[in-house]
Amino acid sequence: MAGRFEACVGRGWAAETLHDLLAITMEPGLQAQSSCKDDCKSTAQNAVKKNPRVSAKDLQKSLAHANIFVDTSTIRKTLNKNGVHGRTPRRKPLLSKKNIAARLKFAKEHLDIPQHYWQNILWTDETKIELFGKNTQHYVWRKKGTAHQHQNLIPTVKHGGGNIKVWGCFAASGPGRIVVIDEKMNSRVYQDNLQENVRPSVRQLKLRRGWVMQQDSDPKHTSNSTKEWLQQNKIRLLEWPSQSPDLNPIEMLWHDLKRAIHTRQPKNIATLKQFCEEEWSKITPDRCAGLICNYRKRLVEVIAAKGGSTSY
């Protein structure tokens, strides 16, 4: 069956479905192209569910070997009409079966905990902030032929221009302390940081007696020496499932912080540190309260995903 073949295929076709498609398109008993198109449309929709990673171009080349010529623009338009669109995949931690089970257990056990419990937690985390925000998506409005004009460029330097690593914390009542970690973070440095910043933040945020600290499962946080330090300092921890940044609302504050910093276009590490502290101080109690007020929704999503990744 040669000639133009308007099949419904595109981004989202798995390589293993090509055999199915060829079987349909080359079946001798098919009398009408419209019938073939309907069959292929159904096959395409099933293929999208299986594996959304093979491009329209790759599938077009494979089909051409069987004398089936498919225009990639037609491929994409047809898929678009059926609600399937090419999108940049979101990055999420790889979850093992153990991770998934732990996340589901955490969500179920904490789903019906009263709201005041979440309001008495000190949420903590570390993050890296790039000088030129190489991990941040940027856009400019420009005319054709002006791509290389100075105002339309993002400056880059060898090795990325550097970065800073910061530790921060917050609670429902507002942002706590944020500190730049100038030396390599290990268990000792982590413990020193907690010593200097946790209780002052707890007092600043006016957490009630019985407050709990959240931290992730980084090896520095779970080492024997850190466990001993936490016990000696009587700091209670929220039991935390590994690979679960989507359950930590501080990730939203990191997003806010990095966007605000890079909007100001720091020129060097010194101004990067300065802007980091200034923009963190601008985070409002209302923003923090909103993240905690809606926390239960995260747990609901985890349960709905059976322990898998969420939209957060």
TrEMBL record:
Residues 47-112 form the Transposase Tc1-like domain. InterPro entries: RNaseH_sf, Tc1-like_DDE_dom, Transposase_5, Transposase_Tc1-like. GO terms for molecular function: DNA binding. GO terms for biological process: DNA integration; DNA transposition. Residues 121-273 form the Tc1-like transposase DDE domain. Pfam families: DDE_3, HTH_Tnp_Tc3_2. This is Transposase. It comes from Leptobrachium leishanense. The lineage of its organism: Eukaryota, Metazoa, Chordata, Craniata, Vertebrata.
